[in-house]
Every structure is written in structure tokens, then in C-alpha cells.
Design goal:
alpha/beta, Undecaprenyl pyrophosphate synthetase, six-stranded parallel beta sheet, two-stranded antiparallel ribbon, 8 strands, binds farnesyl diphosphate
Amino acid sequence: MAPSEPLAEPGSAEAELLARIDRARLPRHVAIIMDGNGRWAQARRLPRVEGHRAGVTAVRDTVETAARLGLRHLTLYAFSVENWKRPRAEVWTLMNLLKEYVRRELETLIEHDIRFDPIGRWRELDPSVVTALERARDATAGCGGLRFNIALNYSGRCEIVDACRRIVADWAAGRRVDIDEAALSEALYTAGQPDPDLLIRTSGELRVSNFLLWQIAYSEIWVTPTLWPDFRRGHLFEAILEFQRRVRRFGGIEPAEAETAGTDHAGAGRRGVADA
Ligand code: FPP
């Protein structure tokens, strides 16, 4: 999709959804658990890896749409620490799809001003994958549009362990920061980025699967039965519209209720907002 093409075909269902999105209240960070590739393939009597292959098209559409819509941060869960339990051939295919994706998409990422950033224990992947990832990361380091984090060899629990190790190493080196929530956030792979406002999961499963455990404390969750290979921009628009309908209380109460109760309602009742 060239940056000059319309984000949605005029008169299409996607265009109608897009027109309803309030661009001033976009989620600052959208995180997606891409699930259902295997079932997509199974339903077509295809090998599981064909589901992953088809999933790459959904990745491409989602990343470009997010960038063109003006989202600032997008994190896709592509390979977990637990995914090593899968058959070797499936893991091998996933790694090759990843290398192929970064090689083929690099120009498009740059064209859309997208900064590509792997997160997780991705440096432990095969050296050929690490090299491909580093190349894309370095080539897009100066891009100032969407920050596209791809979670690879990722585990939310490992991320918290790694953050603690970093803080301990800093202490040992004499950099003794106060150990509070801000310090831990700054030691995570997503340091400097806002927590996801919106977490999307495809394929209807109601789990967080060890994804961004610290960061999703107050994320709004949107689950769609759509299998990942069928996920397209219209689904992203639907998720954002639903996010914009949610009332976010962050443990407080709604402003109207606070007024009735005569309490201070600072920070309460923020409807899905970019600066909440
Ligand atoms: C979950 O579906 C999906 C994955 C474990 C891998 C996600 C990978 C891709 C979308 C393709 C490669 C990505 C990039 C960025 C090039 P599943 O296999 O667990 O599905 P199932 O639950 O139906 O079996």
C-alpha cells in the first residue's frame, strides 16, 4: 500500500469504520497477540506453516495501516519463549518467514517512516535471524513515525526477570536508582514507551499468554474470533472504535459518580484517550 493510496476504499465498510474513528483519541500503544494461524490452515486442510505464511500478509496490512492511521506504538507477538516447544520444522519456517519479512519489507518500513524494534531475548535466535533483525533495526533507527516492536523469543515473565537483573547490575556498578514502578518500567524492553492502551487478541482465546505482563496492567482488551491470517485493517478500526467507547477508570470512579459522592475525581473516568 503506497502512502498516497487511500487508507480505505471510498464507500467500503472499512471507510465507514475509519470515518468514525476520532483521530485525536487514538490509543497511544496497541499490542496484538496474533493467534489462530494453525486453525486457519487446518480449516483448509493445509500444513500449519501455511497459516503462518498467510499471517505475514495480515502483519503487513496491520503495520502499514497502523502507521498511516497515526498510531505511535504497535507491538506484535510473533514468537514466544514457549514456542520452542513446537516441531522444529514449524520453528524453522517461522524464523525464515521472519527473515524474509524484514528483508522484503525494509523499504516499505522506511517509506512509511516506521521504526522497527525487536524486543525479547531475540539475540539468542539463530545468528542469521539476529543479523537480519539488526539490519532492519539499524536502517530504521532514524524513522520518527510508528514504533513497531516485534516480540521475539519473548516472555513477559522473562522480561521482568531481565529488568530485575538490569537494576541489580546497575546497583552493582554504583548506579543506585530507587526501586519503584518507574524504575522497573524503565528497565523493561519497552523502556520509554507508553504502556499499551489497547490489547487485541485474535482467534477468540481469552488468555494473555505471558505477553507484556507488566505493561498491560490497565490495557483495554479486545478479543475477536477472527483468525490472524484473516485479520485486516477493518478489524483494527473496529478494535479502536470499541476502545474509544470504553470508559477507563484506572481504579477510580466515573466523574459523574464522583460528583454525586462529593469526592475528588482527578484522573477518573477517562474515555479511551491518547493522553490517559
Ligand atoms: C499463533 O498461531 C501464531 C504464532 C505463534 C506465530 C505468529 C507468526 C506470524 C503471524 C507469521 C510470521 C510473523 C512475521 C512478523 C513475519 P498458532 O500457530 O498458535 O495458531 P493456533 O492456535 O490456531 O494453532
